[in-house]
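In this section we walk through a basic example: taking a raw amino acid sequence and producing a predicted 3D structure, encoded as discrete structure tokens. The instruction is simple. Fold the sequence below.
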Amino acid sequence: MPSQPVIPPVVWALLFAIASWAITLISSVDQLLFRSMPILIGLFGIAGVSIILLSIKRFAKTGTTANPTTPQNASHLVTSGPYRYTRNPMYFGILLILIGWAIHQQNLLAFLPVAAFPVTISRFQIIPEELALREKFPHDYEAYCKRVRRWI
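The resulting token sequence is shown next.
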């Protein structure tokens, strides 16, 4: 397991979005019942982007880094705003956007990469971040983990 995140989460998100789209191109399993659901797609997208922006704003307000590849540079442990409900609101926001994207693909198999995203981002991003935060803020981070779930 990497000791530090190497691939930025936005790159992971793009890879999974491309995988979802590629599956749709080669798959004959299509025509979900979401054919006329642009509102649903928009809601997932807006919710995801809003959560991400609120999370970034919270980092800026506390004056700590939001760079996901250098969690060891954090100067503060952010536990307010969206971080009261999930330890990873930005990744949750990305997941919502990917769900909206999969609905847009109108193909059940397009959800396969979406289902793989939390597993992959946990393994390669979240766990290394958690190790860095445990090292930097040992008592505060442990207490935070007891109060707030990793996802939701």
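Looking at the output, two observations stand out. Helices lie at 9-26, 38-62, 89-105, 111-136, 138-147. The chain has one domain: 34-147. In the next section we compare this with other chains.
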